[in-house]
Amino acid sequence: MLLVIILCAIVILSAIFSNRFLNALGIPALLFFMCLGMVFGSDGILKIDFEDFATTKELCSIALGFIIFYGGFCTKWKTAKPVIVKASILSTVGVLLTALGVCVFLHYFLHLNFLESFLIGATISSTDAASVFSLLRAKNLNLKDNTAPLLEIESGSNDPMSYILVILAITLLQGQSINFVFILFLKQIIFGILIGVLIAKSAILIFQKTKLVTQGYDTLFIIALVLSAYGISELCNGNPFLAVYFLGIICGNSNIPNKITMLNFFDGITKLAQIGIFFILGLLAFPREIPYILETGIYIFLFLTFVARPLVIFLLLSPFKINFSQAILVSWAGLRGVASIVFAIIAINSNITLNYDLFHLVFLISILSVALQGSFLPLVSKKTNMLDEFSDIRKTFNDYQEECAIKLLKINIPAGHDWINKEIKDISFPQNALALVITRNNEKIIPKGSTILKENDEITISLPMLYEDDGIELKELVLSNEHSWCNKKIKDLNLKNNEIIILIKREREHILPKGDTMLLEGDVLVLYN
C-alpha cells in the first residue's frame, strides 16, 4: 500500500512539473500520462503487473462521471444558447452516424463481423470532453463564430449517446431480442434525464430554501449528488452519464452559493480524474500487443478522422450555413480519448465473446487521436484563420468572472466647477478612477493627461463594477506573445487617437491601467474605441 501511495504522489508531481514543459513543446498532457502508465506497466521499466479490467471499469467509469458532470457544470448557458441546436445534433445524430459509418467501413472493407464492427464504432463515436476541454484551455484557443462553445458542448454531452450505443451493441451481441433492446434504449434516456433533473432541482431547492448545507460542506454535498445521480441511474437501468451531465448543467447555471469556489474545486477534481484515468489505462495496456492491431487501428483512425468525422460535420451543419473553415476545424477537433477506452473496458467486462482485442484497438486509436489531432489543433486553428484575438476561451466557462469589476459614471461639468480649465492629470478623481471619454458639443474626445476640461463637458469615468452604458462600446483583446503591445508599457504604445485601454484582466486580477503599466502575454485588455 505504501508503494501505491508513493506511486500516486509521483504521478501527481509529474503532472504538476511537466505541465509547462509539455505546453511549450505542444504535447498534450493527457498523452504524457497515458505513456507514463505504459512505462510503469508490465511491458515498461518498473514492470508493475496490472490486468484488473473489472476494477478499472468501476474506477474509470465513476471518474468519467465526474468529468462529464464538470463538463455540464462549467458550461455557461449564455454562451451555449446560440449553438445549442447544432451541438445537440452533433452529440446525438452525429454520434449515431459516426458509429454507423465506422461499422460499415469495418464490415465491408476490413471484413469484420457486423455487430462487432458496430461495437467498435460505438466505442469511438463520441469526442472526448477531457481532451477537448484541456486543449482549448491549455492552448488558450480563442476561436471565432462560437466554435469553442460548440466543441465544448458537443464533447461534454455526446458521451451519454455513445454509451447508449455501446450498451445496445453489447445487448445485441448477448443475443437479446429487438424488443428488449428498444425498451433498454428508452430506459437509458428517460431514467438518465429524469434522475439527473430531479436531483438537480432538489439540490437547488435545498441550497435556496433551506440552511441544511452549511458553509464548507457545499462541495461535499455536490459530490454526494454526483454519486447519487450516477448510482441511482445505474440501478434503474438509466444512463448514468446522461444523469450526471444534466445534473451538472442545471446546477452550474442556477443561482447557488459559492459556485465559483465549487467550480475551482471540481476543476481540480477533474484534472486529478483525467490524470488517474489516463495513467491507469496506460498501466493496463501492453505495448507488445499493439503490433497485432496496429494496421487495423491506423485504418480506423484515418477513416474516422479524414472521412467519417468530416462527412458527419458537413452533412449535419450545412443546413446552418457553417463556413468551410469552421467545418474543417470542428472536424479536426473531434478528439477521441478516455471515454472511448472506458467504454471498451465496459464491453470487455460484459461477458461477450470478441474476435479482436477491443481494448488495445481503441487504446491505439485514442493515442493517435490525442497525439496527432491534439498536437496540431493550434496549427489547424491558425491555418483555417479561426483564431480570434478579441475573444476569450474562458468566457465559455461558468468560472469566468464576466463582470469587469468597473462601472462607468458620467459627470457633467457645470459653470463654476473647480475642474474647469484644469488638465486631467491635475484633477483628483475618486480613488482608482480613470477618465475615459469627454463629450463636448456632441463630440467624443479621448482624454490624455494634458486634456483641459471645459464648462458643460460631460466626462465618463470608470469606477469598480462595469455595466453597459449608452454610447460606450467596449471590446476585449487577448494579448498574445506575438502582439506588438506585449511586454511594453502603455505610455510607449502607439494608440489611435480614439482608442484607450480602460481595464487589464490578468488571470483573476483586474488592473486599472496607468502609463507605466506593463502589458504581459495572456492579458485581456478591455478597449474603448
What is the secondary structure topology, with strand pairs?
Elements: H1 2-25, H2 29-40, H3 53-73, H4 77-80, H5 84-109, H6 114-123, H7 129-138, H8 147-157, H9 159-173, H10 178-209, H11 218-235, H12 240-252, H13 259-284, H14 290-317, H15 324-332, H16 338-348, H17 358-383, E1 407-412, E2 434-440, E3 443-445, E4 458-463, E5 474-478, E6 500-506, E7 509-511, E8 524-528
Antiparallel strand pairs: 1-4, 2-3, 2-4, 5-8, 6-7, 6-8
What does this entry show, briefly?
The chain is 56% helix and 8% strand. It is of the alpha+beta class.
Write down the CATH topology of the largest domain.
Na+/H+ antiporter like fold
Rg, Å, rounded? 27 Å
- The H-and-E topology, N to C, reads as HHHHHHHHHHHHHHHHHEEEEEEEE
What is the helical fraction, as a range of percent?
A: 55-70%
- Give the second-level CATH assignment, the architecture of the largest domain: Up-down Bundle
Distance between the termini: 62 Å
Principal-axes geometry comes out as elongated
**Main beta-sheet strand count, sense and barrel state:** 4 strands, antiparallel
Strand order of the largest sheet: 1-4-2-3
Q: Helix/strand-derived class?
A: alpha+beta
Give the low-pLDDT segments: 400-404, 466-471
Count of separate DSSP helical elements: 17
Supply database-style keywords.
529 residues, alpha+beta, Na+/H+ antiporter like fold, Alpha-Beta Plaits, four-stranded antiparallel beta sheet, 56% helix, elongated
